Amino acid sequence: MAVLFILILGLLASNVAIATTTPSREIRSLNRHSFPPGFIFGSASAAYQYEGAAFEEDRGPSIWDTFTHKSPDKISDHSTGDVAVDQYHRYKEDVKIMKDIGLDSYRFSISWPRILPKGKLSGGVNKQGIEYYNNLINELLANGLKPFVTLFHWDTPQALDDEYSSFLSPEIVKDFADYADICFREFGDRVKHWITLNEPNIFSQGGYAKGNAPNRCSAWQELNCTTGDSSTEPYLVGHNLIKSHAAAVKLYKAKYQKTQKGIIGITVASHWFVPYSTSIQDLDAAKRSLDFLYGWFMDPVVFGDYPRSMRSIVGTRLPRFTKEEAMEIKGSFDFIGLNYYTAFYSSQLPAANITHPSYLTDSLATTRSDRNGVLIGPQTGSSWLHVYPKGFEKLLLYTKIKYKNPVIYITENGVSDVNNANLTLKQALHDTMRMDYYSRHLYFLKLAIE
Q: Checking CA distances to 250, which of 62, 101, 346, 426 falls within 20 to 30 Å?
C-alpha cells in the first residue's frame, strides 16, 4: 500500500493531553525509516484558505468570496479569505519554512477563478494567475519539494454559479474540463501528481444541505440559506462532480499523461464509524454511514455506480449514469487521496423523515461522539473532532479490501485546538498535543501498511 502522509500545518498549540492505548514505546521509536521507501511527508493547503489577494491581478470572485462577504454571521469570527495568510505574496517564505522543516512535498490547490475569472474560456484566461502558479511550482522544485496539485478545492467561480447554478447543472462538466486542460498544459511538465477534486462529498453536503457556500439548503432547516433542496441538490451536485472528475481524467490520460508522465486521482474524506452497540441494526447503520459519506464517491470511481444502499433508500432522487458515463467513471484514477480526522458512533435512526427528506438523514443512521456519556476520543478545538487514531487503520484496511487495493495517498490528517492568544511563540511551538496526535496516527498508519 503506497502512502503519502500530508501534515496539516499552521494550527494553534494547546496544552491538552491525549490519552490512548497506543503503545508509547513504539510511538517514540517512529522515524522516517519506520516507513517504506518512497513514503512522502508533506503539508497541504487550499487556495481560498491560504492565498489571499482575492481581488488582485484580475482574479474573479468565487462562491466563497460571496459567501463570506454576504453571510458573515455564518463564519465564527466573521473572517474572509481576502488576505488569508497572504501566500500569494509570501510563497517564497512559506516554501523556505517547508524546506527547513524537512518536508518532501506540498499539496496546494489552484484557484479556478484566478485562472479563468469568468469560469470559462470565453471569459478569457488570466495570464497573471498562470504566472503565479508557475512561480510557486518552480520555487517548490528548486527547493526539493514535489508539488501535489488539486484542481478544485470548493472555490467555484461565482460567474458560473450566477450563469447556470454551477454544479447543479451538467454544463459545468465541459467548463471544468476546459479549466483542467489549461492547468495540464501550463503546469503538467513539472506537476506529476494531480488531484481533480478535494472532498467532493463534503462540498456537496456542506454547500447544498448545511448552508455553507453557495449557501443552499431546504427552507425548513432554518439555516438562513438563500434557496435550495437538501433532499435532491446534494446528490445532483455530487453527480456532476463525478462526471467532471471523469472528464478531466479522460482528458489527461488521452492528451498529456504519455508525454508528461504524471498520475491523477481524486481525494475523498471519510470518518470511521463505530457501531453504537452490537445489535444488527447498529452494525448496519455503521455500514450505511460509510456508504453515504465515503461510498457515495468511491463506489462510482471504482465500480461505476453508487452503493446499493443509496440506490435502495434514495430512489429516484439519486441520479443515474448512462452506460457510457459509467464506463468512463469506473476506474478513473491512478490513486485515491484519503482525508481522515476522526470517528463517530453510528446507530439506527428510529424512523425515516418522510415529511422532510434530506441527504443528512437518508442513511437512516444517526451519529454521535459519545456512548453512554463517554467520548469516543479526547476533545479537540473543533466540536466534531475527537482523537481516534485506530479509525485511521480501520478506514485504510476497509479501503484496501472493498476498493481493490488502490494506491492510497493520505492527503489530509490533522487536529485543531483552542485559540489561546496569551501563549508566547515558544509556548505555542511546544506543541505536544499535535505531536502526540500525529505520532499516534502514524503508528496506526504503519500497522495498516504492514
A: 62
CB 42 within 8 A of CB 105: yes
Listed in order, strand segments (DSSP E) in 110-237 are 146-152, 193-198
pTM of the model: 0.94
Q: Is 186 a catalytic residue?
A: no
**Where does the pLDDT of residue 28 fall: very low under 50, low under 70, confident under 90, or very high at 90 and above?**
confident
Residues 6+ apart with CB under 8 A from 327: 304
Cα 174 from chain centre:
22
pLDDT tens-digit profile of 237-290? 999 999 999 999 999 999 999 999 999 999 999 999 999 999 999 999 999 999
Could you tell me which of 188, 225, 204, 194 has the C-alpha nearest to residue 156?
204
Question: pLDDT tens, 79-134?
Answer: 999 999 999 999 999 999 999 999 999 999 999 999 999 999 999 999 999 999 99
How far apart, in Å, are the Cα atoms of 18 and each of 141, 387, 440? 37, 8, 10
Identify the helix (H) or strand (E) that includes residue 235.
helix 233-255
User: Angle 37-269-88 (CA atoms, 0-180°, nearest 5)?
Assistant: 80
Residues found in the chain: 450
What is each CA distance from 330 to 26, 246, 247, 406, in whole angstroms? 40, 9, 12, 13
- 32 alpha-carbon distance from chain centroid: 25
Beta bridge partners of 339: 269, 412
Q: Which of 324, 393, 412, 450 is catalytic?
A: 412
- β 193-198/146-152 pair status: parallel
Say which range, 68-72, 122-126, 201-205, 350-354, has the weakest mean pLDDT. 350-354
Cβ density class 384-396: b for 16+ within 10 Å, e for less: ebbbbbbbbbbbb
The answer to whether the beta carbons of residues 62 and 26 sit under 8 Å apart is no
**In this structure, are residues 33 and 439 in contact, taking their beta carbons and an 8 Å threshold?**
no
Tell me: pLDDT of 21 over 80.
Answer: no
Residue that is written with C-alpha cell 482575492 in the block: 54
Cα angle: 382, vertex 388, 393; to 5 degrees:
130
The Cα–Cα gap between 206 and 68 comes to 14
